[in-house]
Amino acid sequence: MYDFNYEKPASLAAAVATLTGDADAKALAGGMTYIPVLKMRLAKPSAIVDLSAAGLSGITVTASSVTIGAMTTHDTVAKNAQVRAAIPALAALAGGIGDEAVRHRGTIGGSLANNDPAACYPSAVLALGATIKTNKRSIAADDYFQGMFTTALEDGELIVSVEFPIPQKAAYEKFRNPASRYAIVGVFVAKFANGARVAVTGASQGGVFRHEGMEKALSANFSPDATAGVTTDTDNMNQDIHASAEYRAHLVGVVTKRAVAKA
Amino acid sequence: MPQVTLTVNGKQHTVTVEGRTLLVELLREKIGLTGTHVGCDTSQCGACVVHVNGVSAKSCTMLAMQADGANVTTIEGLAAADGTLHPMQEMFREHHALQCGFCTPGMVMSAIDLVNSHPQGLTEKEIREGLEGNLCRCTGYHNIVKAIAAAAPLMHAK
Ligand SMILES: Cc1cc2nc3c(=O)[nH]c(=O)nc-3n(C[C@H](O)[C@H](O)[C@H](O)COP(=O)(O)OP(=O)(O)OC[C@H]3O[C@@H](n4cnc5c(N)ncnc54)[C@H](O)[C@@H]3O)c2cc1C
Ligand code: FES
Ligand code: FES
Question: Are A9 and A87 in a shared domain?
Answer without folding.
Answer: no
